[in-house]
Specification:
It is built from 6 helices and 3 strands; from the N terminus they run αβαααβαβα. By secondary structure, it is mostly helical. β2 (109-114), α5 (123-131) and β3 (137-142) form a beta-alpha-beta unit. It is globular. The two termini are 28 Å apart. The model has no long low-confidence stretch (mean pLDDT 93). InterPro entries: AB_hydrolase_fold, Hydrolase_4, MAG_DAG_Lipase.
């Protein structure tokens, strides 16, 4: 949801941002999850039982790093309950807004996404790259990586942080600011 929020925030206040970096953003609904019958059922349930739990996130969909998954599943600050119907409806509304917002984006964009992400369909990152008007846009796909790239296996997470720092350093240097890396 963080990527979706970032896209919508930048689209509503473009003059306040000089670049956007997204890790595994939510841009489109997964076709396996958001089938027409499930979407219809969620809309109906939202009127009757908006707080109904639809199921929780499988921790194995977050990362292949077992140590990180143990930390995630034992963290008392992480909500481990199911997603509420009302939350799912809000996500679907956000996706519709993102679809309308993408063609208006012109700022530099870096998108990092795992090819095995089951939480945010990678097709959304490809759509983002095809739709935004930015001339400075990069998509880096991490083969077999899951959703939380910064919590992936060490070779992936190290590459992710290097990619992020390099991209930020390039943007800062291009703007004539002193580098801090």
């Amino acid at each position: 949801q963080g990527g979706a929020i970032s896209i919508l925030t930048v689209s509503e206040r473009p003059s306040e941002f000089s670049g956007m970096l997204l890790i595994s953003p939510l841009v489109v609904a997964s076709p396996e999850v958001a089938t027409p019958i499930k979407v219809f059922a969620a809309k109906v349930l939202n009127f009757v039982l908006p707080n109904l739990s639809l199921g929780s996130i499988d921790p194995n969909a977050i990362s292949r790093n077992k140590k990180e998954m143990e930390s995630y599943t034992s963290d008392p600050l992480v909500y481990h309950g199911g997603m509420k119907v009302s939350f799912v409806i809000q996500l679907m509304n956000a996706i519709a807004r993102i679809e309308r917002a993408l063609p208006k984006l012109t700022l530099p964009i870096l998108v990092l996404h795992g090819s095995s992400d089951k939480l945010c369909d990678i097709k959304g990152s490809y759509l983002l790259m095809d739709t935004v008007q930015s001339q400075d846009k990069t998509l880096k796909v991490y083969e077999e990586a899951c959703h939380a790239l910064h919590k992936e296996l060490p070779e992936v997470s190290t590459s992710v942080f290097t990619e992020i720092l390099t991209w930020i350093d390039q943007k800062v240097s291009a703007a004539g600011e002193p580098s801090h890396t």
